[in-house]
């Protein structure tokens, strides 16, 4: 009996011990679960913080809903096989830089500018597997020079402009700053001393490479944390912001004037010579807006074409007298519209591939066109005929006619910029080599003086070239090598469009990194970076009358800025 009681007590003690151990295990599991929840919460908080920082710097976002932009359309379904040199430049929706364009394969290499006959275009430009995909091409040539500029705007220091930079209402906007009406000279002129502190001994000993590296760092404005910048080095609107380079004196201000929604990707923007109108090219149509009011004043669409399928207008340009608008599209046809009657005055055919770029000569008679068929062609609208054909080894992405009508320049997938005599067709410059671009050239623009040229490339750089063309070409002389006098580095992705303001005070650029930058052509230093578009900035254009510029983007919007 006594033995039985001992056994029962032992069994009871054992059970109690096991219960205590189970309770300890349960508490341990509960603690581990709590730790896991804390770790998960911290992880999600870190992800959200990083995403906010990325969005603030203009980087790719997880979803376009962060920006309140339009819903993204499905990928354009039409392609032309090897002629589709630029499919997918903004591939992959908002996260990758473009609505409705084929997402590229992962871990791509930099584009190498393959010839049009190759089965695959440059990485990031190819269609995705499946049905042929197609993207509008970023082409831009600067508008004619004008009498007055207006970009050298002094900004009160050190405070930012009042009002937080809210977008201005439609209707005549007031001046961005009190000094708008009397433009100050651009930095570098004798009237505006450049803020260059005396170099230290250490700075004097820096190698050229180190100096270049420091310049690049100072120009990479996308790396600046906007939350950490003082008020005088940033400006924010409701859906855009600008950051100003802390390493140089701020002499510009910026405001959004008009936001112009479209039904598709905006491939190109261009002003009329009097600055009163801006034209845009998108899927199947070109539009003309009044700059002051933002109102749509003309919708140009060829009604004779089938209504199904895509047909992107990849380049637009006004005639110097403002009576005509030329459009170039992927159906290989150049249409010259009489704006007053909304009718097609001329049609030029002959290109074998998509037309990516157009420019009107200042004489109002000649139009230059560049195409994936590896040719630049000049057309006479008075005789309604082709007057010159220039052939190269690779697809032509961009063309521009010099202000004096003497030369035509073109950029190509072969990384080169070429300049020809527009009358004889003689090649006078070939800008390439060690100092040249390392990837396809997507945009060229003459300086208003005509003796310089800027080019933008998929190598993420802009280059300024000093042309060495003689007054008269000697018979039999070969092309001269223009001198690269400056390289502008700071964009985080492909440079898709470049231009110069009317007096050459600023170089303006748009990129697949969704940013717009203004650069000092004298020093190569970036003055500001503007982020507002939710997709690649395909086209930038300054107004020939100064003080205003336009941007076109894969986010299906064009914007007019002061």
Concise structural overview:
The chain has helices at residues 2-56, 201-204, 208-219; strands at residues 234-236, 241-244, 256-261, 268-271, 277-281, 286-290, 296-300, 313-318, 324-329, 334-338, 343-348, 355-360, 366-371, 375-380, 385-391, 396-401, 407-412, 417-421, 427-431, 441-446, 452-457, 461-466, 483-489, 495-500, 507-511, 515-519, 526-531, 537-542, 549-553, 557-561. It has 562 residues and is of the alpha+beta class. Strand 8 (313-318) and strand 9 (324-329) form a beta hairpin.
Q: What do these coordinates show?
A:
The chain has 562 residues and is α+β, with helices and mostly antiparallel strands. 13% of the residues lie in helices and 29% in strands. It contains three helices and 30 strands. The protein has a six-stranded antiparallel sheet with strand order 1-2-27-26-25-24, with no helix packed on it. About 24% of the residues have low confidence. It holds the Pfam family WD40. This is WD40 repeat-like protein. It comes from Glonium stellatum. InterPro entries: Tscrpt_rep_Tup1_N, WD40/YVTN_repeat-like_dom_sf, WD40_PAC1, WD40_repeat_CS, WD40_repeat_dom_sf, WD40_rpt. GO terms for molecular function: U4 snRNA binding; U6 snRNA binding.
């Amino acid at each position: 009996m006594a033995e039985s009681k001992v056994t029962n007590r032992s069994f009871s003690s054992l059970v109690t011990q096991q219960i205590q151990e189970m309770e300890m295990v349960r508490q341990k599991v509960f603690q581990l679960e709590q730790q896991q929840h804390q770790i998960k919460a911290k992880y999600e908080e870190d992800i959200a913080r990083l995403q906010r920082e990325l969005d603030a710097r203009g980087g790719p976002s997880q979803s376009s809903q962060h920006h309140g932009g339009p819903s993204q359309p499905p990928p354009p379904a039409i392609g032309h096989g090897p002629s589709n040199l630029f499919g997918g430049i903004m591939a992959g929706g908002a996260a990758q830089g473009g609505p409705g364009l084929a997402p590229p394969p992962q871990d791509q290499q930099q584009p190498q500018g393959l010839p049009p006959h190759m089965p695959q275009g440059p990485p990031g430009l190819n269609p995705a597997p499946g049905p042929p995909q197609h993207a509008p091409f970023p082409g831009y040539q600067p508008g004619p020079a004008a009498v007055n500029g207006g970009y050298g705007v002094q900004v009160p220091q050190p405070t930012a402009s009042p009002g937080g930079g809210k977008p201005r209402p439609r209707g005549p906007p007031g001046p961005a700053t009190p000094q708008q009406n009397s433009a100050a000279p651009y930095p570098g002129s004798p009237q505006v001393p450049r803020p260059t502190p005396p170099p230290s001994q250490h700075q004097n000993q820096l190698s050229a490479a180190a100096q270049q590296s420091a310049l690049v760092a100072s120009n990479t404005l996308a790396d600046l944390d906007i939350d950490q910048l003082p008020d005088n080095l940033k400006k924010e609107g409701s859906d855009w912001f600008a950051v100003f380079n802390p390493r140089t004196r701020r002499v510009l201000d910026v405001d959004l004037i008009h936001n112009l929604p479209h039904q598709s990707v905006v491939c190109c923007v261009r002003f009329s010579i009097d600055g009163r109108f801006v034209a845009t090219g998108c899927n199947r149509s070109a539009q003309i807006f009044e700059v002051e009011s933002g109102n749509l004043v003309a919708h140009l669409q060829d009604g004779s074409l089938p209504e199904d399928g895509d047909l992107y207008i990849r380049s637009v340009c006004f005639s110097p007298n403002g009576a005509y608008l030329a459009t170039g599209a992927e159906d290989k046809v150049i249409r010259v519209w009489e704006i007053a009657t909304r009718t097609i005055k001329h049609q030029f055919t002959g290109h074998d591939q998509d037309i990516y770029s157009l420019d009107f000569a200042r004489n109002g008679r000649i139009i230059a066109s560049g195409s994936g068929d590896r040719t630049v062609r000049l057309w006479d609208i008075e005789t309604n005929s082709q007057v010159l054909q220039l052939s190269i080894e690779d697809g032509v992405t961009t063309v521009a006619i010099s202000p004096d009508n003497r030369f035509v320049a073109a950029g190509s997938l072969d990384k080169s910029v070429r300049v020809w005599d527009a009358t004889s067709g003689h090649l006078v410059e070939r800008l390439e080599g060690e100092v040249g671009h390392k990837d396809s050239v997507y945009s060229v623009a003459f300086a208003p003086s005509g003796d310089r040229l800027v080019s933008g490339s998929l190598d993420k750089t802009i280059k300024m070239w000093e042309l060495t063309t003689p007054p008269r070409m000697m018979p039999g002389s070969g092309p001269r090598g223009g001198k690269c006098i400056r390289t502008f580095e700071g964009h985080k992705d492909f440079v898709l469009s470049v231009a110069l303001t009317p007096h050459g005070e600023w170089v303006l650029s748009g990129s697949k990194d969704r940013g717009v930058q203004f650069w000092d052509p004298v020093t190569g230093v970036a003055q500001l970076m503007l982020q507002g578009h939710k997709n690649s900035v395909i086209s930038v254009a300054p107004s020939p009358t100064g003080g205003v510029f336009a941007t076109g983007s894969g986010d299906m919007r064009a914007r007019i800025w002061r």
